[in-house]
Every structure is written in C-alpha cells, then in structure tokens.
Amino acid sequence: MTVTHTHTHEVAGGTSFADRLNQLFETVRDENGMTFTGKKIAARANELGYTLSDAYISQLRTGKAKTPSFRTVEAISRAFRISVTYFLSDPEEDLARVQQQREYVQMAAQTGAHLAAFQHGPISPETIDMVIEVLKVMKQQDPARGN
C-alpha cells in the first residue's frame, strides 16, 4: 500500500494530522518490536470500546479524511498507548518521550530491571534517562543479561 501525504489540515505545531499519524506508524513499535498496521490499531481501539476501522485510519493517513473527531483521536492515541496531546502539542517533544519509553522497555527487558520502585508517583523524563543509562551499564557489565 502506498501512503501519500497531504498537508492541508494542520494541527498544533504546524504539521498535518496525517503527518503526525504517519510518524506514529513509522516510529512506535508493538510489544514484539514490530511496526503497527492500521488493522492492528483499529483492533486495539475496538478492544478498548471505540469504533474505528482500518479503512478510516487509511483515510486519515492519506489526508482524505482531514478532521477526525476528538473520540477518534482519543481512540488512536489509546491504541498506540500515547497521550492525545501528541496530536495537540509539539510532536517533537512527545516523540522524544515515546522513543525514551521504548528505549526503557528494551533495556528493562534485556536486564530484567524495572521502575517498580517508582510507583509512588510520576517519574520525570530526566529520571527515566538516568535509569536507562544505569540499565545500559548493567547490560555492559553482565553480557549474559542479553544483547
């Protein structure tokens, strides 16, 4: 399937909804490290109680559908497990957070360490960066933890 981009309906930050949605499909991975498909995102959204089709996601990605409802944006966001603010705020900041979370998940899986000790409240991005660095050191010191 060829995806074309149109830049007609801009959201906060000056990029189109289609651009931001396509950025998610290009960068966010599932629990197995695979890219998402429209079909998988639609299925996840439907499992969460939303009504969303692969065909409509395709229309949003190509720009044929330009103004999704907030409920649709919410469904897509929840299916990708990101905040709806990704579509409403600066995408570079949120993309960096998504990439940071992905790196943490990868390092935690490889080292067997998790942030369970921090469940008492929100963790700042700076703290997560420090934990990722510690996990990288742990991995280097004990190659048996997985590469």
Summary?
The chain has 147 residues and is mainly alpha-helical. It has helices spanning 17-27, 38-47, 54-62, 70-80, 85-88, 91-111, 125-141.
Which key phrases capture this entry?
434 Repressor (Amino-terminal Domain); Cro/C1-type_HTH; mainly alpha; 147 residues; elongated
**Percent helix:** 55-70%
Number of strands: 0
| Radius of gyration of CA atoms, rounded to a whole number | 17 Å
- Give the CA-CA distance, first to last residue: 34 Å
Protein name: HTH cro/C1-type domain-containing protein
GO molecular function: DNA binding
Domain HTH cro/C1-type: 52-87
Structural summary, described in words:
With 147 residues, the chain is an all-alpha fold. The chain has two domains: 1-89, Orthogonal Bundle (434 Repressor (Amino-terminal Domain)); 92-147. 56% of the residues lie in helices and 0% in strands. It has helices spanning 17-27, 38-47, 54-62, 70-80, 85-88, 91-111, 125-141. Mean pLDDT is 78; it is low at 1-12.
Secondary structure layout plus pairing:
Elements: H1 17-27, H2 38-47, H3 54-62, H4 70-80, H5 85-88, H6 91-111, H7 125-141
Organism: Williamsia sterculiae
GO molecular function, one term: DNA binding
Protein name: HTH cro/C1-type domain-containing protein
